[in-house]
Amino acid sequence: MISNPHEHDEDLIAPTTNPQARWLTPGVWGIGLASLLSDAGHEVPTSLFASFLVGTLGASAAILGLIEGIVDGMAGIARLAGGALSDDPVRRRRTAIGGYTSTAVLSALIDAATAVWQVVFLRVAAWFSRGLRVPARNTLLADVVPASVYGRAYGFERAMDNFGAIVGPLLAFLLVSLLGGLDGYITLGYSWVTGCACHHLRCSSHPTTNRAGASAAAHKSTACPA
Prior knowledge:
This protein is about 80% helix and about 0% strand. By secondary structure, it is an all-alpha fold. The chain has one domain (about 25-145, about 160-210): Up-down Bundle (Growth Hormone, Chain: A).
């Protein structure tokens, strides 16, 4: 009797293709909440940034545009470096925690700036940290769910991040409306609290590597040579 050469392959693939696999784990919740709080936190100072730079420090609109261009470029470069760091199971966790915390702290320090060059340095450094943490966060998310539910887990994380982007400007508007000229203290306080909250969330979730999925993929690659 001739057996199907792919019969055992299907058994190996099954654990990673189960559509009923649990995806909303504590790790996914922790990463999602960290994304929500972090995005809300940095959207508060971002919403006030143009007014602070142009209105308070007297910079021109051209300088504002130049700063934002440099910031986006540095964030992209940081993702390349963050990708290399996230390949290391030990460094990826430290990179994610450090990125979340340093982004909040550096954004908060903008409130203490008294010159445009100080704002440029802090803004670029904050967004570099933000870009550095993205690959590590994505890799950590892949560690806590089976491969068959990656789409749901990443969709949840993106939804939480976008919700934070809505909450941040609304909170900035509300606080400025209620507290008037205390926008600088809002930036400092809220960014710092958000950084502490994200740091706590990242430290309280302990993702473990998805060894079942990785093992099945490894067996599949050896059992089915091209």
